[in-house]
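Structure ticket #2291
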Amino acid sequence: MQYIENKTFTEFKVGDSAELSRTLKPEDIELFAAMSGDVNPAHVDADYAKSDMFHKIIAHGMWGGALISAVLGTELPGPGTIYLDQSLSFRHAVGLGDTVTVRVTVAEMKPEHNHVTLDCLCINQRGETVIKGQALVVAPTEKVRRPRTALPEVHLHKRGARFDELIKATASLAPVVTAVVHPCDALSLEGALEAGLKGMIVPILVGPRAKIEATAAEMKRDLSGIEIVDVPHSHAAAEQAVALARAGKVHMLMKGKLHTDELLRPIVNKETGLRTERRMSHVFALDVPNYLKPLLISDAAINIFPDLATKRDIVQNAIDLAHALGIDLPKVALLSAVETVTSKIPSTVDAAALCKMAGRGQITGGVLDGPLAFDNAVSKSAAETKGIQSDVAGDADILIAPDLEAGNMIAKQLMYLAGADAAGIVLGARIPIVLTSRADGLMSRLASAAMAQLYVHHHAIGTEA
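Resolution: structure written out below.
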């Protein structure tokens, strides 16, 4: 066990010193900005920093000041030290990769109040003085020796960062004419209008005109130039939207304020719906903190107990979406509770069969492996501990759940316990369907629209110039 121990006033003398060294990393700057609220672009905006006087990202000045405080509080004098005064003169900027050595040296001691003045010096790896100053402290008079506190792990995650990348990827694409089904609440209407303003869609609002206009008035949003197809209620809105899609007038559907089954009912109609030879399935796209890339999960919303043929379509739909999102050869983990095939757990048998189907060309465009337990699918260390050798294990792009219950629980747990952001669409119909929860915010709705737009262009379903 490591310990932290002070030096009392009588245990040191003028000229004694202590030091520490730190190398500036990007996460140091991000943590300091998050803690202090100081988001000066010189520290956090690389594009801005290129044009300022230093031409690079630099540390906050008080990052160095905090290092001085660390030496005083942990080394000399150490625990029990009370800060009274600190002067700092900033001489050189500290850039990413610079190593700063902080040294404090006892300059003066006054026994009557246990006051100690220490010279403070920070130098970089080139020997340049970065910060110079003096500290006045009250030195401890009682000996302290304590176990050094283990600091918590800190994982930085900018919410919506990967969704921002999705939205940026649509910038050069033509907007897609989209039927927005029953957008009669602020969230769904806002999502449609913002997607329109960002050039992702050309919205056609399908629903009761009076309700749509009343919602827009409450939001103080202008509907000028936006087509509204007036229908009496949500059932009729879903049916009319499907009719528009069958006629080739829209190339995406977007769910508004209505239940999912109400939207899907006319879509799955064998005679008048949008069914194809492929089974429809829902794909969640999650931006999960601590996972290095977007994670697709399917199916968590439509197919309750999928058989092998349905699972084949679920896998292929997810692979096709991954291609549209720019993942050339997605890694697909077929989930179960164990890694071995056993007839007692049907999902393991299905996973093995799906892998064989991929080998025979019945599933294309991805690398499949399974059965894999969840930990082995997303953690390389877990897979290595269990001796699993796989290109997919620990690096999955797509997780295929054994059934809807498992998929829904995995996705919701990542959202509500791990802080994941989620977007979602339905594939396998003639056109993609943006299917968000009524609780989803604007970012989720825009990310879902961006995925659908990318999918439409990738598969050349139809666009509006």
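Closing remark: The domain at 161-458 is CATH 3.40.718.10 (Isopropylmalate Dehydrogenase).
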